Amino acid sequence: MKVKKFVAWDYVVFAALFLVCASIGVFFAVKERKKKTSKEFLVGGKQMTCGPIAFSLTSSFMSAVTVLGTPSEVYRYGASFVLFFLSYALVIIFTAELFLPVFYRSGITSTYEVSKNYLKMILYTGIVVYAPSLALNQVTGFDLWGSVVATGIVCTFYCTLGGLKAVVWTDAFQMLVMVAGFVTVLIRGTTLNGGSTKVWEDAYEGSRLNIFDFDIDPLRRHTFWTIVIGGTFTWLGLYGVNQSTIQRCISCKSEKHAKLALYLNLLGLWTVLVCAVFCGLVMYSHYKSCDPWTADFISAPDQLMPYFVMDIFSSMPGVPGLFVACAFSGTLSTVAASINALATVTFEDLVKKGFPNLSEKMSTWISKGLCILYGVLCTSMAAAASLLGGVVQASLSIHGMCGGPMLGLFTLGIVFPCANWKGAIGGLLAGITLAFWAGTGSFIYPAPPTKSIPLQLSTLNCTLVNSTEALTTAPVFWPFLADTWYSLSYLYFSAIGCLGCAVTGLLISFITGPSKGEDIPPVLIKPVCNLFCFWSKSLTTFLWCGVRHDSQEVSTRPPQLSPAGAQEQRACRHVWA
């Protein structure tokens, strides 16, 4: 069964997306040409409002992986993926109420040292560019390297010219394109398959609506608990303490605007999630009797969504181009966010420390040069990703496993004032070891099929192509941990890393001598004990561990510290940054 390839009108619609994005960069380059400070370029002068920041956050974290992967996930495993709406809510609450106040009030621009994390972000960005390009190329005939190079050039162009403001407003536009693409597919797909009632009936008969599975078995791939608990840790590690998120939030004109942006962003996350889940159900209704994946019409599950689009819009030139624009809107926003974040981190952590007396004009030019450098590196990494083959999925998983230990490290420093630098280092090493132990073991010894097998798919009405069944060889040595520790749901890797880091860090801190709270500026610690010990002032003060939260009013803007206070603040940052 062959579907129609891209035609001229599809390319026109897709090219229009790139043209608008580039135009936004030119607009802000002209508008802000007299504001040449690095602060204006990297964090928008801290004058952004909540609306565009909310759109930007949603667009950046709902990448093409979401557009292509989530409908495929629902198609194969059912609609339990919709439970992530609870995870998203918890993530936003923790980010807005726990992490954001500390970052915003302390005036921190970089949430981590670039030397420790830049390679991981560059690799991830390269994969985000390459993976959707490959999926769309194999189904639609869309030129692979043309899309990769165009993505890199356009993102680098508007990041370099317009800075953070261009990135944010372009993300807002791309968010609208993403939703428009989803809605178009939903309307057309639902109409062709007999309406929403028929789609719902097909999904019910195919067991795609068995959402609430309260099995506490941590080895099951997706249950209520793995998604809500494990999903919260996973997203908090990649969202709550992520450079891209914090950089956008601190660009807001006030902490109130930053928090409001996060909560408005939650509505955007829910919208994209619901659209993606319903696209998966519509796709199942369409292919319930002829699954293109098991029939070998496509070579990978991620190609299901573009195959579906090319199928249902075969008689409507230009509309497939809208969907490709929808998919690449997520890619553009993610790449732009990474380029801008990498430039900011490099400038703050390396350039300013090495050359503290740079003029504002020179600082701005260096910031723009860094954007160009990272744009080239991220695009080049897409070429490297093409050589990884099956390691691409492994690289994405490793990126997720890194988020848990980092989340544990930030939590240790922000919530527990008694933690010292020895505990922070020891905890981080322990968290990374545990997360990678479980993750690497799961790659070598995959979970039993009973824990992660897809729901039934039919090829009853397909004209099958000739194919050879691939043979799978099980490892000769099968250790005891293969059926327990190595079979944990992938969503728990982040939780393992986070809890391992926090618990180990606290133990080492108490053994080696906890930090003195009197030496820590209150702005760097979030007194969460106040929520649980409000009934006892003495107990609350005791749990402050010496940090004098009642000795000064914590303002909503970065405090003006004395030279000694600034030195203390820099020392404290090394515990959790």
Properties at a glance:
577 residues, mainly alpha, 21 helices, membrane, ion transport
Shape: globular
Average pLDDT level: 76
What is the gyration radius calculated from CA atoms? Answer: 24 Å
Order of helices and strands: HHHHHHHHHHHHHHHHHHHHH
Helix/strand-derived category reads mainly alpha
> Main sheet, how many strands, which sense, barrel?
none
- Number of helical segments with 4 or more residues: 21
Give the beta-strand count. Answer: 0
The portion of residues assigned to helices is: 55-70%
Low-confidence stretches: 389-395, 467-473, 552-577
Separation, N- and C-terminal Cα atoms: 54 Å
The proportion of strand residues reads under 5%
Architecture overview:
The chain starts with 7 loop residues before the first helix and ends with a helix. It has helices spanning 8-31, 38-43, 50-61, 64-77, 84-106, 114-140, 144-192, 196-205, 224-240, 243-250, 255-286, 304-312, 319-354, 360-385, 391-415, 421-444, 449-452, 493-512, 529-532, 537-543, 563-576. The model is unreliable at 389-395, 467-473 and 552-577 (pLDDT under 50). It contains 21 helices and no strands. It holds the Pfam family SSF. Belongs to the sodium:solute symporter (SSF) (TC 2.A.21) family. This is Solute carrier family 5 member 12.
